[in-house]
Amino acid sequence: MAELTTVARPYAKAAFEHARGAGELAGWSSMLALAAAVVANADFNQYISRPMLSATEQAEAVFKVCGDRLDAAGRNFISNVASHKRLAALPAISSLFEGLRAEAEGAVDVTVTTAFALTAEQTQQLGQVLAQKLSRQVNVSSTTDASLIGGTIIRAGDMVIDASVRGQLGKLRSALNT
Predict the structure, then answer these.
(1) CA–CA separation, 146 vs 90, rounded Å?
(2) In the 8-state DSSP scheme, what is residue 170?
């Protein structure tokens, strides 16, 4: 995973700089998300991974699936990625682009994992508290994981706050074993 992120980072930065300069962050976001979804499809990925296809043919296959939802600059970007045999990195490129976009817009995506489902009100309150703590606009998504036993795990970018019972038991186990 780290290797794919390393490969994707310069492409994501280049796309972001171009999109920001053109004032088209939202458009590029949707183009990259679409291309990433196309390439992430197992059947399509198997098709374009055939050694007999040239980079141009791989890019053309992506263009055919995406249709007119890619503008000229988006097509050029995909062609460039394909010419360097990096189409498999498109999902990571899209993800990194979204991170750069959120940072530029002063927003952060936060994933909250809890042992039990949160109500809409709890999610909203948690979002407000996190927005104050992080001094940013917060987009909260929540998931459940019964193995946490209780508590929460909050992920915001590189920051992880593990306030789960499972995490506390793990820390206690480590302390006892040392």
Answers:
(1) 32
(2) H
Pick from 140, 145, 146, 72: nearest CA to 111: 140
Q: Give the helix/strand (H/E) hosting 139.
A: strand 137-144
What is the 3-state secondary structure of 113-132?
EECCCCCHHHHHHHHHHHHH
Cα(118)–Cα(81) distance, integer angstroms: 40
Q: Residue 110, SS3?
A: strand
What pLDDT, on the 0 to 100 scale, is given for residue 2?
Answer: 57
pLDDT tens per residue, range 26-57: 999 999 999 999 999 999 999 999 999 999 99
75-134 pLDDT, tens digit per residue, is 999 999 999 999 999 999 999 999 899 888 888 889 999 999 999 999 999 999 999 988
**Residue-range domains of the chain with CATH:** 2-102 (1.10.520.20), 107-177 (no CATH)
Classify burial at 87, counting beta carbons within 10 Å of its beta carbon; exposed 0-12, middle 13-18, buried 19 or more: buried
Expressed in angstroms, the distance from the first to the final Cα of the chain is 31
